[in-house]
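During the first year of the project, the team set up a workflow for recording each protein of interest as an amino acid sequence followed immediately by a discrete structure-token representation. This format lets reviewers and collaborators read both layers of information side by side without switching files. As required by the reporting guidelines, we include two representative entries from the current panel. The first entry is reproduced here exactly as it appears in our internal archive.
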Amino acid sequence: MPQLAYSFTTPEPPPNVIGPAGGTYTTEEGYEIDIPAGALDSTVSLTITPLTEPELPTPPPIGTSMTTAADFGPDGTQFNDNVTITLPLVNPLTPGDTYDLYWYNSATDSWDDTGADGMVAADGLSVSAAVTHFSIYAMFIDSEPPTIIGLNPGAGDVDVAINSNINFELDDSVGGLYSGVNPLTLNVLINGYQAVIDGAEQNGWSLTRTYDGEGGYDVVLDPVGDYGYNQGINVVVDVSDNAGNAMSQTSYSFTAFNDTVPPSVEGFNPTPGEDLVPLDTTIYFELVDRHDNPPDDLGSGVLLSSLNVVIGGLDAIVNGTFQTNYFGGWTSDNLSGGYNISINPHIDFAHAAIVDVTINVKDKAYNAMPQVDYSFLTAPDTTPPVITNLSPTPGEDQVPIDSSISFELEDVSGVAL
């Protein structure tokens, strides 16, 4: 028979059939499996089934939403080397960013972290990660905004020290899968003025941020100056996390030290109504700013520059300054929130004189003390006048017949002619 020669071809294996030589399988939707040589011991028919969030075997971790997921099969297939899987993203992400990739553990009906980071592609449209077995794989992102906790001063606090810092914590650890607070999105408004803009402190405030290790920050705002007494402070905070979830604007208020009680005067010397006061006496009194409830609770403190004292109708102290013909001083008293005042006239008081004293003062919260009026009586003159410098002198003889008689009358309070 003449020699017969012929040939035939076998069909190419389907693209999803890969053996020990390795290969790449890509679906029309963009899902991909890249298997290096030697990762498989035998030929396997690969399957990729995209999943929507409702199709997941168990819900996403608390506080997250699914960005991509697929069932890679045959389920349970183990590899001798890392295999790279690629999943298209529902919404684009920042190229080069990394996210945790999770696999579905059917034994515990939970999502377990693969320990491998999924890296976003250069076009931001897919994410790739290395895996060692087939399962359902998914990537979740933070869907919960940050929260603000640990307010200090707290909302509604009163009698807050006027030099207090503003402290709060920005937390983004809901569910344990967090993107973290983005400190560059922090904006703080205090009484209508910007204290922080896009994470940067503004004039009048010093900002300190400390990372808490769980995606959040401890924030301290230190005002350059003190608050006003009785001043209401309103704080408004805005911030987002790195996933772009914006916290609902938080607004709260507190009130600086609420001093409504005016100062008072005590410790008078001479005391009101006292008599027989020495003519060269120094006037003492104490200005105090204590409250009665609770007892001895200090007020805002005496405002020395508001002190005005009138003695005998003449200004002795005006706006905290001694006037002509008076000198003296003061010492602060931390126990009373005030001052011990001493006033010494340059000229002694007259005998048996009624000396009127008027005191006006405010505290640092500008509570005005009701005017204090009192008086004391100086000692009378109980010594009679004396006559001196007699001329002619007593017993003098041979006095000219035309001599004048002269003498001097002396008295500490004056002679009544």
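The second entry, processed by the same pipeline in the following quarter, appears below.
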Amino acid sequence: MPAPSAENRLAHVLRHLDAICTVSAAARPGYDDLAPVRLPPPTPVAEAFFRGTAPLPPITEDIQWLHLQAHRMPVLFDGDLVSTLFFWFSGWQEVHSAERDQYGRFPYAASLQARLNCISLPVADMLLEAFRQWLEDESGCRLPRHPALPPLSISHDVDHLRSGWRGLVRHQLRNHRPVAAAMAIAKHFVGEHDPFDNLEVMANIVREETGLTSSFYFLGARGTHSLGPNADYDLSSPAVQRRIRRLENLGCEIGLHGSFGSSSDAEQLRNELEKLPHLTAGVRFHYLCFDPLHSPDVLVKAGATHDATLGFAERAGFRHGTAHPFWLYDFNRQRSHRVICQPLHAMDVTFANPAYQPTPAADIPHHIAELAHAARLCGGTLHLLWHNEYVVPGEDLLGEETFRQVLRLAMLD
């Protein structure tokens, strides 16, 4: 891959600046003498770093910190703000790191956020706001921010619709209710309603607690993959297609939950997309599998324009330092990528999985509320994923009341 030039790095940063505010011609920054606002040249540390392939920049004890809204933001590369913003918005560390987990995902432990302990703040958003204020001061022009985004976005990945009865049976047996367990088994085999078949319930809970509508991501393939299970339902079936139409009638958006393998196979992803009557919420890949160098091209080739995958499965917070839609950098073509990424900040599995960030159910709403407050510091949206199976009483499940409390606290200012 060719090294991104200083001008291309700046262009990528300015695309994100234009997304949050209006920049007049008189305030347009650049590195050349003719620019209305002349920027300091990139520091030698930044130039050397972006000519190389190291995933993380050098971190020294005398790192520069910028203070904004009572928070400290790290400015990398000897205080080079534009280069720091490019690092966050481009996905540099993920592209250049060889570290991957068992699902091929870039792990939180290998990230700069883990090293600097800044995962709980939208670092890029706050540094971009500092850049906006600096341009105002240098140019003498106002750069008015666009209206703040909605404070919360709620989505649901529909992994299972037909297998909730198993957890219900385990729950009844653990509570010494064998008759109730036997009845749950009998209801399943005569085709009665499954506990996971609760999508309208989820949509109504969200509307009751927040006044918002949900987005539902349906898995495009069923059965078992070498990496794990796909759906326990057939997306093409008339019954599931009817459910999708009912959710659309409730105002919900519908997206594709790309199955295992689809993040690297455009034909597979295209075939799965064709199973949906409408696509209004973009794509989120199963188990958050995403190759930052190749998956954006897969999305484009398959005809998708939006992705909602990019969060750390094992840690809640701001994977790219932002609570706004953003663009990864296309390192092959040396420009911003065409795919618009909606960040993912928190999900139920992160807190429920003992291998991730295990958290007592009573503490989860408060943790998510802190992230929601951080997202609003620069007018952003907290993107929350809650699976339909996590509002069903059963083994290792969080329950409806935890979900309701999460929604209530996340909406508070």
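For the second entry, the following points were noted during internal review. The first strand starts at residue 29 and ends at 30. The radius of gyration is 23 Å. Both points are flagged for discussion at the upcoming steering committee meeting.
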